[in-house]
Amino acid sequence: MAQKRIVKEYSELQKKPLDGMRISLPSEADMHQWQILIDGPKGSPYEGGVFTLHLSLPTEYPFKPPTLSFKTKIYHPNVTNDDKGSMCLGMLRADEWKPSSKIEAVLSFAKALLLEPQPDDAVEGGIAREYKENKKEFIKNAKAWTKQYAKK
Amino acid sequence: MASAFATVAPASTQTPLETASSNDPRPRNQDNRNTFRGGRGGPRGGASRGNRRGGGENQRANGRPNQRARRRSSTASQLAAPPVPPPPGLGGGGSFGGRLTKDAEKGEGDVAGKQSEEGQDAGVDEDVEAEVCFICASPVVHNSVAPCNHRTCHICALRLRALYKTRACAHCRTEAKFVIFTDDAMKRYEDFVEADFQETDEVLGIKYEQKEIHSDTLLLLRYNCPDETCDVACKGWPALHHHVRTIHHKVMCDLCTRNKKVFTHEHELFTQQELRKHEKFGDDNPGAVDQSGFKGHPECGFCRQRFYGDDELYVHCREKHEKCHICDRRDPVRQQQYYVDYDSLEQHFRKDHFLCADQECMDKKFIVFESEMDLKAHQLEAHPNGLTKDARRDARRVDISTFDYRTPHQDHRGERRERDGRGRGRGRDPNTEALPQSTAQPMRRDELAYQRQMAIQNAQAATARTFGGQLTSTDAYAARPSGGNQSTVTAPRNNASTNTSFPAMENPNLNPASNTTPASLAPSPALTPQEQARRLQHSAVMDRASTMLKHDQTKISDFRSQVSTYRTSDISASQLIDTFFSLFDVSSANLGKLIKELADIYENEAKRNDLLKAWNDWRAINEDYPSLPGPLPGSSTAAGSGGHRVLKLKSSTAQSSRSAVSKQGSWQNASNSNPFPSMPAISANRAGAGRVGATPWVGSSSSSRPPPATSRPTSRPPAAGKANTSEADAFPALPASAKPNTMIFGLTRGTVRWDDGRSGGNPVNPWGGPNGSSSGAATPAAAPAAEMDAEPEFGKKKGNKNKKQTLYKFG
């Protein structure tokens, strides 16, 4: 069941790509693992960087939510600062996931999060605090990381 | 019509934008349709009308979408490789036009509608669009309408309700007590009246507008055989497992059948070998089109037990094993590390943290501190009189043991030490420092003095650090609760084997018994590789058994004699299993491993199957499987009449490209170019040259079998009455030679009566391959038990046999 839906969504996104995103399959045979390159959105401290994301679709998709992680290090309150780079998206939580949610919506949401972090929903408390209390410093750090890790 | 569809396809790309808005729970009329309904019109409209007319149309209505589904599945597999052609059937926009078409069509009447449908089907190929379920992207056979007027196909709705046990709408998560299964693609929920419903299922919360939909739905909920050409439905899991094993000579993954939320017929059938691969590596099959993304069932490194998924493994580890809360707090990012039990964790506490050595605290467990300062504070507060002399002595003794004893799971120590290595007394009770020097403290006096000084200096810093550490770690930890992956358990298994509660399977020096060559067997000088391998298996079984029996000689010989009584058919398989249970004091999972290995070495097909069957029956009775909420026993007689429909239904919900052909192809593929280096033996030996361990079927071909010791019952014993009728129906269709393998068994132990008289006509073993006669003389029927005792002593082997032999000699 998952296969059809995934193939469909993939081909939709290939046909009409999201702005500033390139989607590919690391292994052409495995539709369940997607690789996404996101350009840092204009106006965000991530501008100018390219971030690699990994989207993993479970066997039970769409009845179970996919998981999204950053392969490129990013200074962001909602992305864990470890080798997993897990991203906290409300809509991806098991109890909030809707089978009708599409990957496109997930990706759009992720991009929106780059533009506007949600410090109240953070996984990196330190960065969230900095974002709230000392935005200048946050922007400086985020830019530095972007330059260091997400160079084009 | 056709032009209407042409416009539908491109427009559908707008769908995603609307998806986001579909989160809105408000029932919307037009929007609703635009969002979820695909190219409305001809084909579906026609079909549903046909259906409503009932009778002869049903077949057609059911058949059509399935044909499409099949066609589509081939498209889907083509789609897998980019460049990607435009997807057929995106349920999406453009439906407004479609709706108009339908209205117009209404005017023309049903006949016209149907004609257009036929024209469509004849003229157009896979680009034809039937409406497609937004959720599963498969053509809609029947509609499900929720009170929020969101629609899915009936299969998705049923999946959510029956398998995921949720009544939430797939689109907006609104809970609905009832949904309506209908063929009317347009009618809104509130427009239905009670009189419209032919059937109501209170349990699932489904109201059926048509009897046919009801029966279609019930078909899906039966225990259908996953084989695509088989229309048998069983009465329950045990019967289905039995059916699959006897009729198709396959097995289903136990973990999947218990946990995977798919309809029964959507489970997969495996050979033993495939099952092993499935458990270990998943269905990952590079180059195949039937990728499922499944990566195998993770295993607990301590218990060697597999779990359905990371979540289940995580739960297991959390319940059965211990974690160090201090390490977790310090470094939440690091991989989850577990200790096999509290003793092991306590060792870690002593070694790397500051454990309160007070007996009372030791009994309470987990009285351990991150810093010396914290420990001192605790001691001042809780043990104001200072530690007793006894405790001090204990502390010293502990030191010695921890210094001398280093287990691999404490490898990270060094790293940790670096991090906060400020020279504090490592894992040492501060009180012991005051004691005179002992050998337990391999430090010179000046080092000690330095350490003490540093400890004092750091005391304040330590508390501050602790506090900060707590803050960050708890959030981050909560966000990653299921961080467990296959490597979750990093503690090595050696550790587990030192613990007596787990059988140490690799323990090499067990089983003195297996080294004694009994007089009963004169080892034949020229043994085939098959036999050598078989002997290895025998000794492996004995090894396992004696480990499980804790090397108790009387029990081991008891085990031996039981096994040989079974071989000589003096007792039945279920009796054997009964005695095993009294003999072994281990978990059923462990016993299962033993029994499976034991079964593998039975040359006699019937014996082997019997034993496995008896074991599975036992398990089926004693362990529970998830039950399907559907119709229960009794409906299995419907299999005959519903057979055709079942197959259609199966194919309609089947995963896109799992046709028999593609599956065959891809597995074939895998065996040719096996991507997993660790399993070279399997692919290399596919031909059957004596691969025994993993392939019972092949192993059995090593010799021409003497007559099986047990005859098969010529008639079904009355006790076997539980076996269902549809199975009985299926039997005549089998080739005569297969029948003897399907031993009759009672679902309840002890009720089967075995015919002691030989029923003559012993079957030709269907598995006895061309090389069957090669070693026939050397392997009498008595071989299994006799060889169990044999110590192999052969000279030259070849290939992987050689390796195995070496391994064995080690032991």
Automatic annotation (TrEMBL), chain A:
The record, for Gene3D superfamilies, names:
Ubiquitin Conjugating Enzyme
PROSITE patterns found in the cross-reference section: UBC_2
| Family matches, as InterPro entries | Ub_conjugating_enzyme, UBC, UBQ-conjugating_enzyme/RWD
A GO molecular-function term, please?
ATP binding
Keywords, alphabetical: ATP-binding, Nucleotide-binding, Transferase, Ubl conjugation pathway
Q: Which PANTHER family match?
A: UBIQUITIN-CONJUGATING ENZYME E2 (PTHR24067)
* Protein's name according to its UniProt entry: E2 ubiquitin-conjugating enzyme
UniProtKB/TrEMBL annotation, chain B:
Q: Which CDD domains match?
A: RING-HC_ZNF598
Composition bias type Basic and acidic residues, residue spans: 100-117, 389-399, 406-431
Which reaction does this enzyme catalyse, per its entry? S-ubiquitinyl-[E2 ubiquitin-conjugating enzyme]-L-cysteine + [acceptor protein]-L-lysine = [E2 ubiquitin-conjugating enzyme]-L-cysteine + N(6)-ubiquitinyl-[acceptor protein]-L-lysine
| Bias kind Low complexity: ranges | 512-529, 651-662, 711-720, 761-786
Gene3D superfamilies cross-referenced by the UniProt entry: Zinc/RING finger domain, C3HC4 (zinc finger)
Please give the GO cellular component terms listed in this UniProt entry. cytoplasm
A Pfam family found in this protein is RING_ZNF598
Q: What is this protein called?
A: RING-type E3 ubiquitin transferase
Species annotation: Lepraria neglecta
